[in-house]
Design goal:
The complex is a heterotrimer of chains A (108), B (459) and C (380). Chain A is mostly beta strands and 108 residues long. Chain A has 1 helix and 7 strands, in the order ββββαβββ. Chain A is 7% helix and 24% strand. By secondary structure, chain C is an alpha+beta fold. Chain C folds into 3 domains: 172 residues, 3-Layer(bba) Sandwich (FAD/NAD(P)-binding domain); 54 residues, no CATH class; 81 residues, D-Amino Acid Oxidase, subunit A, domain 2 (D-Amino Acid Oxidase, Chain A, domain 2, 2-Layer Sandwich), CATH 3.30.9. The chains are: A mainly beta (108), B alpha/beta (459), C alpha+beta (380). β1 of chain A pairs antiparallel with β11 of chain B, so a sheet runs across the interface.
Amino acid sequence: MDDRDEPIEGAHGRWVRIARARGESVPFTIDGIPVRGRAGEMLIAAILAVRPDLGCLPPDRRSRAGFCLIGLCQDCWVRLRDGRRVRACTTPLEPGMAVRLDSSDESW
Amino acid sequence: MSSEPLVVIVGAGPAGMAAARTLVEGGLRPLVLEKGPTPGGRLWQRRATVDFERRLPGHDPDLGERRVSDFLGIVDRIDWYPGTTVLDATRDRLWALGSDGIIDQTPWDALLVATGALDRVVPLPGWTLAGVYTLGGAQAALKVHGCAVGRRVAFLGTGPLLWLAAAQHLAAGAEVALVADTSHRLGALAALPHLLSDPHRLALGLACLRIVRRAAVPIRLGVRAAIVEGNETVRGISVESTGGRRHFVCDAVAMGFGLVPQTQLLDLLDVPFDLEPTSGLWLPRTDRSGRTPIPRVYAAGDGARVLGGEAARLSGERAALAILEDLGRPTDRERAARLERELERQERFARGLARAFPFPTELEARTDEDTVVCRCEGVTAGAIASAVRAFGRHEVNAVKALTRCGMGRCQGRLCGLAAARIAARAAGVPLGEAGRLRAQPPIEPLPASARCMAAEANG
Amino acid sequence: MNVAPSRLRTEVAIVGGGLVGCSTALHLARRRVPCVLLEAGRCGAQASGVNYGGVRRQGRALAELPLAGRARRIWGRLERLVGGDGEFRATGHLRLARDEAEAAALEGWIREAARYGVHGELLSREALHARFPWLGEGFAAGSFCADDGQANPRLVSPLFARAARSEGATILEGRTVVAIERAPPGFVLRAEPELELEARVLVNAAGAWGAGIARLLGEELPSEPIAPNMLVSEPLPFRIEPNLGMAGPGIYLRQVPDGSVIFGGGRGTVDLERRRCRPSFATSLATIEEACRVVPELARASIIRTWAGIEGRTSDDLPIIGPSPRMAGLFHAFGFSGHGFMLAPAVGAVLAELVLDGHSATSLAGLEPARFAPGSAAAA
């Protein structure tokens, strides 16, 4: 794709963009690291374009990457730095969003 | 304060949108609650983000845009609440969560539930690895987000959606590793008379088949076993079929075996359910008019019975006519009868699809005891069977209490059907005796930080 | 279709297949006494199977403490008794006081309860926060009973039912008692569908339906049906070890090992005749708000399920346990008013002793049905 977002060094996305995104490129962060997504897209697409998974959810340590993608399976919950939990497949990306995939600090 | 009856529609997919229009034409002002940010449902979800270079088979974005525009054209004559998820329903009121985190409630005089369907899954070894999605999920990633869910996607399952999703991915330029169907070719031939009742859809199906063949994608039919391989993430899939056993390299799997109506609200409203023996699905009791045995509660679209997008539109319109009639408004009986005739034709086609793509009982019966059935809580098939034998209980809600299967975040949406089959098998009783998982409110997770709105909506 | 009813005869008939009924059946069966238990639905499906799961002596009315003490000993050896521990863990129970008056009440209770062998530790505001950093503000003091804890009610009832059956008790589900006749020296129960049961002794362990069973024999015992409203969160990193409760009215909360936080307080709705109940969304919202004051971090989590169960509440919030003052051979054990789960394993043991020996080493003073007899203080 002509305007593919730059992959982050050392990380790779799971999803592959195969259609031209209409929205402009906007910045957000994952565990403090600056990345870019597309205005208007859902958070899960933005994250999985640059990461292999969404981290883990209690009660197990299984890496998750979403499943039904239509807001029903509850697999894609992610935390934001401000403490909110959102379902990544139904939450639009906002510029400046700070996503926390690393849950090793055991906070709720 | 209006003395007009308050009709609430839950879901603004094809069925809900059609119902809203019909009610507005009938002089009412319905309240329409839609979980997503825009109307359209799975079928006509507005692509806010992407442009495809090529046209995808079975995907008419212009039609979808038109339908959505039509709906938005009447938005000043309805009370439209996008981003609103209904969490609980009683005879008195509905409770809903807005995307702003505020809870609101509304009474209702007539209620149409048009909440659509979700892919049916069969637990398989490795199906909880990162990179496994439903067919509908893969489609949503493609059509809405413009992404393939992996660099090389394997498609596994049965039903028209299997072939449609694979063909759409190929047309969009994604790499498809495999199309593995549990159904046999012979089933499709036997179903031909039914399938001919909708030649347009039949033609679409054949076109998808052609696209997959022409792309030289490996095809496996009569699949009776499958294992998704990988450690933390999908690395490949092995299938056993009429063509023997074979391993395919892939980094994503899209799976689905038909669709399951999402009926949690109907269950909370005490609508009775009946077991449909061929599919093994418990379906809410409705008639072609969309009425349920519960007064003033109606159901339409795939959320009542999976018949596809066109039938959803027809049934939404028909249910709205039923609502108008039951509210004592003048209705067009001829129009209602015509809609029901068309719905009957759609049902005939659906029967053909069920015959061509039956639920894979053999694949399911081979569910290994180490296979995780409840993804949310990590409960295996073996744990379910053990509990059934240890306590002599096979009713699926009792099994849930004993094993935690169905207690997780998705509240049994993904595991409930499989759990009932495993329980019935372990106890040696007919499937119907295992019953069905009962819905409990909230039907979706409720953030503890959600705050209640003081005023009622449209009180 | 007229089918002649099956006729059964036994020594002890038990009405109600909750934890009380099943534990009674188990203890009778262990002493080789024939008993038949009739349960209208499925054993353990009502309050017994869906309650909060608290196993605590702290905060109980003193009249319950002898029974609770015996129960605590049984909880400690549940595996030996019924072949499973029901996930009982002695996590301790923390009781929280919001002001000085409640703090004084906590202290007073600890002092009184010491007579019954219950040991509690008083905690100042500072000590509370040091020991339980997840606790919210606004608590003046707390008391901690290390010996208390929690268990999984969904497992315990089935364990007792299975154990009773394997010891020889006959447990019949799907049988609703519709009539009871006195046929001295015993009783004849008629149940639907198609069952007649003759027994010398009758144990009324019918929970929220216990008052109705008593009424069939002309006995009025004050109990109203309530539906405690329960909630559970998604699984969260494990943080809260003790079972929490309030000194005054308020929520009760615990976190299970897989991380879900279970809590309750407030009521849902109940339809006793149709044997159905429902959680109340409005109540749930209010309870969530209070829970977030007690454990502020909970505000970050999602609540994924709510439910209710049908329980019988008496006019003095104490269970009705013991022989009927009006009729020989009739024993009542119901009306646990939302806190019977912990007691139930001992209630069965005590009832078996009352039925077979005419007395029990465990005092039921203050809990007897006779306290509601006309002319008595409690009935006033």
